[in-house]
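Cast an eye over this sequence plus tokens and explain the fold to me:
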Amino acid sequence: MKSSLSFVVLLAIATTVFAQERKLPETFTLPAHPRILLLNNEDSAIQAAVTSNPVWKKMHAAILRECDEMMGLPLLERIQTGRRLLSVSRECIRRVFYLSYAYRMTGEEKYFQHAEKEMLAVAAFTDWNPSHFLDVAEMTMGMAIGYDWLHDKLSEESKRIIREAILKKGLEPSFDDKYNGFLKATHNWNQVCNTGMTFGALAIMDEYPIESRQIIDRALKTISLPMEDYKPDGAYPEGFSYWGYGTSFNVMFLSAMEKSFSSDYGLSAMPGFLNTPVFRAHMIGTTGASFNWGDCSPGANLSPAMFWFAQKKNDPSLLWMEKNFLTKDDYSAFTNDRLLPAAIIWGKEISFEQITEPASRVYVGQGPSPVALMRTSWSNPNGIYLGFKAGSASVNHAHMDIGSFIMESDGIRWAADLGMQDYESLESKGIQLWGRTQESQRWSVLRLNNFVHNTLTVDDKLQVVSGYSKIDRYSDKEEFSFAVSDLSTIYAGQLANVIRGVAIVDQRYVVIDDELTTLDKPTKVRWTMLTSADVSIGKNNTALLTKDGKQLTLRVESPAKVSLKTWSTQPTTTYDAANPGTTIVGFEMELGANSKEIIVVKLIPPGAEKKAKQNVEALSSWR
């Protein structure tokens, strides 16, 4: 059954994006509850997929088991950690989404009753912490899904309490200028907060049409700001983990709009957006870990959003990595993902037999954080993987890692990245973490500055925050896959010219080639590579890396005098995190004034030693 509701525009919100206005029409027909993500008449399609597809059967069972576990836990409480209530908000989405899904699919009363208890507990919180608005957005989303999906089952009193909480503690604070800075943001805050507010608006639009319409029109206008940063190739500026956050919520927004209004108002067609799943797939190495530059961790797991992209583009190959994740027997590893039921909603009609390897083994994306990602194989876990990052430290969540790389072979990540440090561990010690100027305290954190990344450090100085580099040229040819970036603005005032090229040669070994020109003064350059392997310094500018019975040779070829050495990664401050099991291998060079130097480093797996004896041409010949 559908209810027809006509809404008249009472507040004009003018917006022009790409020379067109994105806003709801003056009149439209809104589906009855449930209307968010999955209409009432679509439950049977999920149930059929769960019955016929062994993958979704296992996923469904894992969700139900998790729901049964939830019912043994205390109800959610308003427990704030530092300035954040976010962990509670995220658990609200996870519990309410899972329990609402379980009730819709099984009809079992216990799931409804516990979802209702959780929502009433959250509705009773004094507030949802609007000073950190992500907390409000995620809490609102969880409450909206439960209110919408369980609407016909909830008592009138429960509906009133939950509905008023969504309005008063969710939507209304978003109209306050103290809290709605996300509307101007070009990063994940915009995506998450606009999505949470839109879910709340969709849930209570029958009772609060004016406020709900304002919320949705505002989201249609402003969510395009972070979506601009996917152009031209789909690379996400904030890295792998934040792709999983910002992009997933962006997809939830688009899916909800399509379901309720049969349109996403052209947003998914914005340049680069529908190519971003290609970026995400290529960001996972042959070891199954991510290229974790920026404020990201190396862990990689199933992404529900990838199923939306695969069905939207009718391209099952986008799910190659997801298919690998799904080969495990224990699906409980996925139940930390609060959006997991959406994987079944979006993936229910996809044939896993049709998921083939991606056509290309090289991806290059420009934008605010350009990357080049290359591999020798999608299916061989012992193949070589090489990730290379350009960009700028001025990007949200960026590190001073411009020119950094990771490298894998034989199932080992030899060149690694420490990734992020927990924000609260720094903020609780008074670190002002979110500045992005050259003088920001952020750059005193070891994991964030260039001293511990796989890049260059000049005269012990920081990289230049205002600098920016792109991928200047690249090749996807198997005999010589490469990428080159001019890093000169990253070292402005430190070096006259810096160009770095990285390559996989003959599918056998990796080259890191730096060509430098100094200024009119002697200059010290440090080349570093972080590793979790044991390092043994050898003769003739070589080092042997050993881990888990595997080996890799690092060899330096340069006219300059170099002396390989290692550095500790252990903290020297009270706020830096420990980095157990890691070390830095590299070398320092004392270069003369106005000199030009070429430094070639080869990373050579066993069996490639003979191939690696060949000379590497100058970067100007890499075409």
